[in-house]
């Protein structure tokens, strides 16, 4: 039996479990306007509810992100699933803004724990497919969560509960199946010391991380804005009240990103990074055009292009950095990478939510979009200059 065949069941299980966590992370997005109507809170409070998820996720990455390097992958995956199931029960029983904040906080911590350990376990299981799945699963998961929730809200009963029951059932099954998962790491001493907040980037990966970081920041900042405010933005700009629009936009953003990742999986990382920066700048510019022309079709076209930039930028960053780690460094490096990514995911969107109180949603979107375009184009110029420098150095030898 080939190595790939023998590892396939574990690879599939790990990929589906990672996809489930990310689906749960985006499931609340189509429900935000229902929560706003029911609980009567502002766009600023909405981004706070979104932001505590990301901040809690960061706390998990900083504390328990490397824990599976010491305890093994299986117990940490199991613990993350139990925490996520508790979060689903909190969502099902929500009755106030405070309840939502607690649910999102617990969910963020569980997702942060799961993202690091599942990412490392995927790399342990398959060095070739692991980085690709680490790039694809988050985007496909967010698409499934947002679109699946939108469909249930539009066509099924119990709109603020049913999606969480579905996810709870899936996680319960995964918690049972993880007991049969082969362990890929032998436990070692140092687990308690590893809980001290640190960012561990191996020396051999640091230069690659700094080069990829500007594009990674730009794509995640755009993703955070979309997952928190896109449904509200479309309603404000076009007047659409369909429950499918918000989830549809998130699905287009993430599926186009996933398709771009798959299509570019064999391309050189530096070329993929450059393409991601270009597509992101173009897509965001078109999104701003859609806002000011109140064009729903243009919203979807622009989101398709921006999502392609998201996928290319994310893939380029992952492939530039993650393969440089040694086996015992993988969970720590994945944690550090996602800490930086999720800081870009939550802090700009929290700032945008605060600014909407003063300037309004449309004006805030204009400023946010212009900042992303400048960042993406600046990153593109740095990458092109680096390529020119490398070419001159090669030709002079």
Automatic annotation (TrEMBL):
Residues 10-390 form the Major facilitator superfamily (MFS) profile domain. Pfam families: MFS_1. The keyword Signal does not apply. SUPFAM superfamilies: MFS general substrate transporter. GO terms for molecular function: transmembrane transporter activity. It comes from the Bacteria. The chain crosses the membrane at residues 42-64, 76-92, 98-123, 135-156, 162-179, 208-229, 244-265, 272-292, 298-322, 334-355, 367-385. Coiled coil: none annotated. This is Major Facilitator Superfamily protein. It comes from Pseudomonas rhodesiae.
């Amino acid at each position: 039996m080939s190595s790939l065949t023998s590892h396939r069941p574990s690879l599939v299980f790990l990929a589906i479990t990672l996809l489930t966590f990310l689906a749960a992370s985006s499931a609340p997005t189509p429900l935000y306007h229902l929560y706003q109507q029911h609980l009567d809170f502002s766009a600023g409070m909405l981004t706070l509810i979104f932001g505590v998820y990301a901040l809690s996720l960061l706390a998990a990455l900083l504390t328990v992100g490397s824990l599976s390097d010491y305890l093994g992958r299986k117990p940490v995956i199991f613990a993350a699933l139990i925490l996520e199931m508790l979060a689903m029960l909190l969502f099902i029983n929500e009755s106030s803004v405070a309840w939502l904040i607690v649910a999102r906080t617990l969910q963020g911590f569980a997702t942060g724990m799961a993202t690091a350990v599942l990412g490392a376990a995927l790399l342990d299981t398959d060095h070739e497919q692991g980085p690709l799945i680490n790039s694809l699963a988050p985007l496909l998961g967010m698409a499934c969560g947002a679109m699946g929730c939108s469909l249930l809200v539009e066509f099924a009963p119990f709109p603020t509960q049913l999606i969480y029951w579905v996810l709870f059932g899936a996680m319960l099954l995964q918690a049972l199946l993880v007991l049969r998962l082969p362990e890929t790491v032998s436990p070692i001493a140092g687990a308690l010391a590893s809980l001290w907040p640190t960012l561990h980037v191996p020396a051999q990966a640091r230069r690659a991380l700094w080069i990829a970081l500007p594009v990674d920041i730009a794509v995640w900042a755009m993703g955070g804005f979309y997952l928190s405010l896109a449904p509200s933005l479309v309603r404000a700009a076009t007047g659409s009240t369909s429950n499918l629009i918000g989830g549809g936009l998130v699905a287009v953003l993430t599926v186009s990103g996933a398709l771009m990742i798959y299509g570019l999986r064999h391309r050189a990382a530096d070329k993929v990074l450059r393409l991601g920066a270009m597509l992101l700048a173009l897509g965001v510019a078109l999104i701003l055009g859609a806002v000011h022309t109140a064009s729903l079709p243009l919203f979807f076209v622009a989101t398709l292009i921006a999502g392609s930039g998201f996928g290319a930028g994310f893939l380029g960053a992952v492939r530039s950095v993650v393969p440089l780690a040694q086996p015992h460094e993988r969970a720590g490096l994945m944690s550090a990478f996602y800490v930086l990514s999720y800081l870009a995911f939550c802090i700009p969107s929290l700032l945008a939510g605060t600014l909407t109180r003063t300037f309004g949603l449309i004006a805030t979107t204009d400023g946010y979009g212009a900042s992303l375009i400048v960042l993406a184009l600046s990153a593109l110029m740095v990458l092109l200059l680096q390529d020119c420098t490398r070419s001159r150095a090669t030709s002079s030898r």
